[in-house]
Amino acid sequence: MRKIFWPILALATLGTIRAAPSYLASGIVNAIDFSPGPFAPNSVVSIFGTNLSFATQASSVTAGDLPTELGYTRVYVDQSLAPILYVSPGQINFLIPGNQDVGDVKVRVYCQGVYGPEVVIQVKDAVPTLIPAGGGYVAATHADGSLITPDSPAHGGDPVVLYLTGLGKTSPSLGVTTIPKTPVWIVDFADLKVLVAGTAVDSPRVFYAGLTPNFAGLYQINWFLPDVVSADPEIRVAVGPQVSTAGTKLAVK
User: Fold this and answer.
1) How many other C-beta atoms can be found within 10 angstroms of the C-beta atom of residue 105?
2) What is the pTM of this model?
3) What residues have CB less than 8 Å from 118, skipping those under 6 apart?
């Protein structure tokens, strides 16, 4: 019986071996616009590959703390567990830890006892990325929380709330998995500029830049439009030398 049983057992065991997660550094991109790195602390990042998870699951990004394991999948960033937002066999969305040091950073995926390769990405202090709202417009709201759209545009002098990712570390620094419950300012506020049609808004008109309460990895900038502004101007955000991508406009009349 043993001569029959043990080979069968060995084959059964081999059949349960999981394929290792497979991905490249080039498959790690900004989750908002799928652009390559660099990334900033607290940025939302996607990994594309194969065998990344054996389930498709999403975590809540508006309640409680974020998990560091989802669908038996973990992401290590410089040996520390990162918060996970979504997993599937072909994609993971996660947050670069908010306390992550800048420089070359090692990323590795773990799935059900098997590790993928260790790949290197670059992290910088800030990499502002505006959130698109369709039609070439940026996601922004009026002071009352309603969306700014071509049918409900902003006007010169109006307060605007602009939504984006990648503004980096905050003060105070939150726990790695903590979803903010109150406004939390970015540490690089003095270096932040809002550019309207290529011209920086006067700094006194920018009155908040930081995390959006009750959301993971989401930032907002609260500011006043210049009193005189052209229709549908291009909007860009700069933090030091890092500037958001050109071509995104704000609905203004």
Assistant:
1) 19
2) 0.90
3) 106, 107, 108
